[in-house]
Every structure is written in C-alpha cells, then in structure tokens.
Amino acid sequence: MKVGILGGGQLGRMLLQAAANYTVETHVLENDEHCPAAHLCHHFTKGDITDFDTVYSFGKGLDAITIEIEAVNVDALEKLQAEGVKVYPHPSAIRIIKNKVVQKEFYKTNGIPSSDFKVTNSKSEVLDHLDFLPAVHKIGEGGYDGKGVQIINDQFDADKAFDAPSVLEKKVRIKKEIAMIVAMNDKGETALFPASEMMVNPVLNLLDYQVSPAILQDKVLWVVEAVAIKLVKALNSPGLFAVEMFIDEKDEVWVNETAPRVHNSGHHTIEANYCSQYDMLWRIMLQYPLGNTDAILPAAIVNIIGAEGFSGNAVYEGLDEVLKIENAFVHLYGKTITKPGRKMGHVTIIHKDYQDLTHKANKIKNLLRVIS
Ligand code: ADP
C-alpha cells in the first residue's frame, strides 16, 4: 500500500518511525528537502503542500494520504478523494478545522461547548465589540503555535488587534488546559487516549510541559470524553483528532480547538501507551483494528526549544546528562538550525509517580539548552 503524508515536519517524522512496523510504501511532500521527515520516507517529493497541482499530482498514484498540518490544499484532496484515494481525515473535516471562524461556527451548530464569539473581519470590527472584552482574538487562517492568537483585555490591546478575518472569543477563566486524542476508523469505531494536561509558557505561548493521564475528577473526565467523542462524530470523518479543551473555574468544559491529525500532545504515547497515536493512525489507514490506548505508565513531555539569543547550527548543551536520566526518552527532530523559540525536539519521561515526573521535567528543563 502506498501512503502519502503532506508535510515533513516532526510529526511526519514520528509517523514514519511508526510506519517501520508495517508493510507500507511511504511518500512525503514538503518544500524543504532537509525537513525532519525527508530521509525517513521511501519517496520524498519537494513541493508546496498548499498548491493544487502539486498536491494533486503527488496524491494521484497513492492509495491513501494524510496530513501533518492543516495548511494544505483541500481542493486537491477533494479531487483525489472523488477519484478514489482515501484521505485521512476527510477533506471536509480539514476544511472545517483549517479556518477558526468556520471551526467555531461548526461547534455552535453542533452543540459542542466552546466559548461565545464574534466574527471580526477587520480591526475596526474588534473596536466595535469593546463590551465583549476580555476576549481572545484568533486569526481565521494561517495562525500556528500561538502566533495567530492575541489576548485583548481592553481598548489599548484592541488597538493592536489583527486586521484580518478572525474570531473574537470570550476569554475563559482557565483552570486546566486539556487535550484528548480521539481515533476513528472507516467503520466509525472510536478509541480515546487518556487526557493530557498542558502547562503553557505565558511568554512564548508554547507548550511548556505536559502530563498524562491528566488528574481530573471522574465527573469532569466524563464530560471531557463525551465532548471529544461528540465532536469527532460530528466531523464525520475517520482519522486521528486532538481535541484541545479548557476546564474553567466552575469545572465546565469548553473546546478550544481541534487538530485533525497526530498532535504534539500525543508525543508521549510512543513510550507511555500500548498503542501510540502514530501507530493508531497507521492502523486506521491500513484498515487494521484500533489499538489499545491505555497508559502503561504516567508520562510527562518537555519540549526542547531553541534558547533566546542563539541562532545558527544547533548545539545541545546538557544532552549527555539528560540521556543518563532513568526513563527519560530524548527525541531530537534532526533540525540543524536553531532559533529562539523553535521546537527542536522533546523528552518524554515515564514513571508511576507524578511527583517524580514533575521533578524530572524541571530537571531536564534546567539541564538542556539548545544554543549555537
Ligand atoms: P494555537 O493554535 O496557535 O496554539 P490556541 O487557540 O491553542 O492557539 O491558543 C493558544 C493559547 O491561548 C491557549 O493554549 C490558551 O492558553 C490561550 N487561549 C486561547 N483561547 C482562549 C480563550 N478563549 N480563553 C482564554 N485563553 C485562551
């Protein structure tokens, strides 16, 4: 079977690592021939994943195709699907998720709890909604890793709002940020991974460290699970989905956003769960039974991020020390150049004791620095 991946970043790379367990011919389309996934696939094609002709000709001879990022040419995927190529997730689901305005409207129409919002087409429309503040302003298309998100507390912030089609959504008083990965196969069978809890670095707005399974009261967990399943069933598409949710101070659950693909919040499943999110997506695409999502042990993920003030050839200071830590698994993405804030890898730690996870996560954050 021939399977293509649109995008050759770290997620594509880990998906390819899991493919080694199956009989599958892998193809990657990506503009950068030095990308993390380039040398792990059987066939690499250099090209633009947002261009119709490039995506269409890449996908034409394949049996199935998946994505590692939503910013792809959905029209080409629709044509490929109509011609018999299996697309995971369905292009219709990518279309909904790709644009935050459409995504929010989808939640509203389908009774998925998500914070109230206004659609704003320009900065002046944000200024028309000062009574709606405090809010979070999210660019409709093209935002990624916190870069398309602004917190707007007052008129002063509103004056600096993105001047582009966006959603202005009510700011949630967040107690916890949770992600839940849901798998759905062609038959509509589903499997849920245990929830993960994320701690966000307020400066870079990037995931700081994560623990899984999240420690939640049963009644909150049930809501989280019910919302995640309802959302994926409403998307009506096979594939793997990461549903990011907020739990507010009243323990109410709100969907933040969904990723229709393998996700950073599931990195730890490689070591910490019987079936990883990557293995699960292969099972879905190759028509095998869904895997066991149970956690073998609790896990933490620490991102390895380019240090402030260093740009150039990456040097991993403290790597030897980290590699000596028991049950710490280092994943470097093979990026040669570091930049401040760039995701260069992650470390997964597994242990039965959550205190040990937190302790080691902090230790790793202090030991490991990406400099140049
Ligand atoms: P991205 O897709 O770029 O990661 P998100 O939509 O996940 O952006 O937002 C980034 C962060 O901003 C979230 O992790 C959360 O901390 C904060 N945030 C987003 N939406 C809200 C909201 N409605 N209320 C409060 N905080 C929010």
Explained architecture:
This protein is of the alpha+beta class and 372 residues long. The chain folds into 3 domains: 2-88, Rossmann fold; 116-170, 2-Layer Sandwich (Dna Ligase, domain 1); 174-371, D-amino Acid Aminotransferase, Chain A, domain 1 (2-Layer Sandwich), CATH 3.30.470.20. It contains 12 helices and 22 strands. It has helices spanning 10-19, 52-59, 74-82, 91-98, 100-109, 123-127, 155-158, 218-235, 269-272, 277-285, 319-323, 354-367, and strands spanning 2-6, 25-30, 43-46, 64-67, 86-88, 117-120, 135-139, 149-152, 166-170, 174-184, 190-192, 196-200, 207-212, 239-248, 253-259, 299-305, 312-313, 315-317, 328-332, 337-338, 343-350, 369-371. The strands form 5 sheets. Strands 10, 11, 12, 13, 14, 15, 16, 19 and 21 form a 9-stranded antiparallel β-sheet that branches. A 5-stranded parallel β-sheet has the order 3-2-1-4-5, sandwiched between helices. The protein has a 4-stranded antiparallel β-sheet with strand order 6-9-7-8. Strand 14 (239-248) and strand 15 (253-259) form a beta hairpin. Helix 1 (10-19) crosses helix 10 (277-285). The longest helix is centred in the middle third of the chain and has 18 residues, at 218-235. The radius of gyration is 20 Å and the shape is globular. The structure holds adenosine-5'-diphosphate. Adenosine-5'-diphosphate (ADP) binds next to strand 7, strand 10 and strand 15. Adenosine-5'-diphosphate is lined by residues 115, 136, 138, 143-146, 148-149, 169, 171-172, 174, 177, 200, 205, 244, 256-257.
